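Repro:
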Amino acid sequence: MNRGARILLWTAAALAVLLIAAALALPAFLDPNRYRETIETRIEAVLGREVSLGEIRLRVLPRVTVVVERISVGEGGPRGGDPVLTADSLRGRIKILPLLRRQVEIAAVEIVRPTVRVVRRADGSWNFDDLLAAFAAGGKEEPGAAPSGAGFAVSRLDLRDGTIRLHDLRTRRGETVATELRDLNLSLRDLRPGEDLRFRLESSLPPHAGQRVAARGKVGLESTPTGFPFAAEVEIQDFELPAAGPHLEEFLDLKAAGGSVTLDVEGKGETGGPIDLAGGIRLEHIAPGIASAGRGAPAPTLNLDLEFDLSMAAARDRYEFRRLEWKGGKSDLRLRGTVDLSAPRTHLDVEILPSRFLLDDLNNLLQGLGTSAPMDISSPDPVEVALRFRGHPDAIREAEFEGSLKVSHLTLRHPSLASPLEKVEGRVEIGPNRFAVQDFSGALGGSDLAGELEVKNFAAPEVDFRLRSRRADLGQALSFLTPEAGGAAGGTAEAGEEWQADLDRIRAKGTLEIGEGTLGSLAFSRFQGTMAMEGGRVRFQPVEFGLYGGSCAGEAEVDPGKDPTPFRVRARLEKVDSLALLSENLEVRDLKGTLAGELNLRGTASGVEATVRGATGDGELRVTDGSVVALNVLELLAKVSGVFGETTLERLSKRIAAEETPFSSLAGKFQLTEGILRSDDLTLKSTDLDLAGSGSLGLLDGGLNLSLQVLLSPEVSGSMRQEKSQAAELFWNSRAERVEIPMRLTGTLASPSPSVDFRRAGGTFLRSRVDELLRGKTPAPAQPPAQAPAPAAEPGAAPPAADAGGLSIEIGESRFSGNFLLPDAKVSGVFRGAGLARADLRLLDSGGNEILSEPDAFPEIAAAPDGATEIPFSKKIDAKRIAGRGSRLTASITLFDRSGHSLTRQSDIRR
C-alpha cells in the first residue's frame, strides 16, 4: 500500500470513529422532547387533525429510531369527538439518505396495542377519507408556509395487538351499528403517494377469540368522486352469525338466531361506490328471518352452500347477483337477479335458471324469511324449475311469476281438506298473469283426478279446466272450496275469511267426467257435465249420470263456502231403483219399483234431518212395477169391521197376509215443505184395487195423513156382491160397477191406522142410488147404515181370554212404535184375576223360534192385592234387542197366580 492510500484509509477510519462517537453522543446532547410540539404540529399538518404525543426517545445506532409513548390522533375536521387512534407506543425507523434530499421516508412504523375508531358517517363518508387524500397529495404544508417540496412516505406500518371499533351511522333505520374486532394485527405496505397501499389483516371475531378473520389486498391512494379503489380477499372460518346480527339486519334485512358461516370472497370496487364480490359461503345450522317482519315462530335451521358473483350499489341498498348457486342434498338451485332494499319493503327480481330443489328446503327457507307458501306442500322428489320472480318475499301471493315447474309425488295439505291432496304430478307453465297445468294427476282421499287447467288474471282469476276421474267423492272435492274454520288444523277465523274472499274472486268453467262417484251417501256412475264457479257458488249445467240402475239429467247449484250450504237441484229421473235410492240416502225401505219423474228442490245441507226438514220443492214422480212395503191396503180393509165377508176373506187370505201392497204404477205430483211430502193427485193401480187420493207423508217420522178412494178390482167387488156383503151395497159405485171405499189413513208407515170415511160413504151411496134410478135400474134392497160400524181394533189387539182359575189377559195393543226404520216393540193391555203372582214374556219370530225370554217381565204385578184385581200393563222392547229378527213377531205372555194356576196369551206384533 502506498503512502497516499494509507492516509486516505486512516482518514476514513477517523471520520467513522468521529461519526460513531457523534452518534453515541448525540442522544446525550439532543433531547427530542424539546421538539415535541414542533413534531406534533408537523404531523398535524400532514394528517390534518389534532395529534398528541407522549415521551419521545431517539436512537441513532444501529439505525435512526424514534420511540413515542402514548399516542392520540383526534377526529378530523370540525367535528371533534373521540380520538380515531390511541396507542400505548409507536416505534418509527427513519431512512437517513432521503433526509439529505429533504424527504421524509419512514422505513417502518410499529404501533403497539392501538385502538382504532372507524366511522362511516350518515352522508356515506368515512373518517379516514381525509387521511387517504393527504397521503395521495403528498402531505400538507403549514398554513402560510412556502412550499418546501418535502415528501412524506411510509414503507411499512404495523398495528400489533390492536382493537378496531366500527361505527356505521348510515343505516336505513337511523340506528348506529357497532362492531368491535380484537387481537388485531394489521400490516400496511407502500404508504406513499402514487402507490397502491397493500394490507394484510388478521383478527379474532366476537364473541369468541377462537373465531378468526383474515384479509389481504390493496387500496389505491388516488382519490375518485366515489372514494378510493380497492381489491381484497377475505377469509372467515366458523363465524357465529348472531354476532353479525346488526349488520345482517342493516345490509340484507336478515336476522339470524343461530348458526355459523365460513366465507372465502374476493372483492373490488371503491370505498364510497359500487363493489363487486365473488366467492363462496357455507352456512351451517342457521335460522334466518326477515328483520323488518318482526318476531315470528322459530324457523327451522338450514345448511346452505352458496357460490356467488354480485355487485353492491354505492348506498349498499341494492344488490345485483350475476350468479348465485345454492347446493345441498338433492337441491341445486342456480339464480340471478337483484335485491332492492331502498324501499320500506324488500323487493326481489330473481330469475331461477333451470334447477332442481327439494320443497322441504324451500319451505324451511321461506319460513325463515318470515313467509310461507300459500299452502303446505311437500315432496320426496326434487322440483324441476325455471322461473322468474318479481315482488316482495313477505307477500308471495302478490308477486309476479314466469317460467315452468315440474313436480312428482307432491302432497298438498290445507285446513279445508279432510285429507291431503296426494300423488300430484304434472307440469306448470307460468306466464305473465297466467299459468297452465298440463298432464296433471293426483289423489284426494279415495278420489283420483287427472286433466288440464289454465288460470288467467290472478287478481280476479279465470279458470278453464278439463278434469276426469275414475272414482271420486264430490263431497270431499267440494270441501276444498270450504273456508277454514277457526281452530281447524292451523286455520283461524281470519284465515277462513281470507280463503272465502279468494274463492269469491274466482270464475271457473270446464268439463268434469267421473267413472264412479259419491256425493254424501248418493252413489252415481258415468258422470258427465259442465261445471262452473263464480262468487264461490258451484253450478253443474248440464249434467247427466247413471243412478241406481237408471239415469239422472239436469242441473244443480251449491255454495260450499257457506254453512249451512245452500243448494238447488232440477233433475229428470229415468228407470231408477227406488228402493236403492231411498234406503241408501234416507234409510227409507218402504217403496220398491222403477222410479221416473222430475223434481225441483232447494234448501241448505247440514245433516240429513236438517236438510230434509229445510228443503222445499215440487215435482212429479212415477213408480212402476213395485210395492209399498209394510203397508198392505187389503189387510187394512180387512181390519175394518164388515168390509169383507167370509168368502171374500178366504179368497184374499194370501194377499191379505202379505206384508206389502204390490202395484203396477204409483204416481203423483208433490210439494215438499218442512220434511213433509204433500200430494193432491196420488194414484196407485194394482191387481186388487186402484187407489186415488191426497194427503201427506212425513219423510222423517213416516207420519201418514191420507184421504183415499179405494176402488176394488172387479174380481173382489164381484165376490163381495155374491156374498151379499153389506159393505158392497154401501160402497157400490154404479158407474164403475166396482166397490169404492173412502178411507182415511193416519198413524205412521210403521203402524198405520185405517178408518172408513162414512160421511163420504153415505154420499157415495145416495149418488149411486140416484144414478141407478136415472139409468132405469132397480137397486137391490139394502138398508143404509143406521150408525157407523165399530171402529177398527188396534193392529194385533186380542179379546180377553180367561181360564178356569179366573185369570184373564186382555192385550189391547201389540205393535211396533217409534222410529219406523229401527222401531221398538210395544205390548200393552190388562191383567185380571185374584192373587196374581207374576207374568213372563217371550218373543217368537215368524218361524216360532224364541228370540227373547224375560221372566217376571211386568213389575206392575208386584203390588197386586190378594183379592180380585185389574192391573193395566205396558211393556216396550228396545229395538236393539230385536234388530234383524224380521218385521213379524209374536208376543207370548204367561200369567201366574199364587194358587199355581196359569194362563198364556199370544198376539202378533206387526207394523
